[in-house]
Amino acid sequence: MGSSSSSKSTTIIFDTRTHEEYCAGHICHSVHIPTRLPTGHPGIDYKTYSKMCKQLKAYLQTHQPSKKARIAVYCKKGKRAGEAVHCLKGWGYDAFVLGGVEVDPLKAAMERGDYPMCQCSG
Question: What is the distance, to the nearest Å, from the Cα of residue 40 to the centroid of all Cα atoms in its chain?
């Protein structure tokens, strides 16, 4: 479900979990934007948000996807994904929260095998 050659049907999937979470299992062909929430912090702080947005911007500048591309973002529970979508929408992209891997409906879809899963090697 990664990016394809047709801009009409292109979907880019960003995974905004930590490296450890990503390597334990991620949607194949997803783009990893590693984001670690501060210890003991209930949500994402400005420093973390800013760093994540800079990483997203760097990917977009390098790969220059069409503004017609749909961008799906997921994380563990949906909070980091929501913040990433906020950045992306601010730049004019059609972005949405795919969900959190520990929360339905994404959890159920992954368990059904709707998304091919990969793990880091080595």
Answer: 23
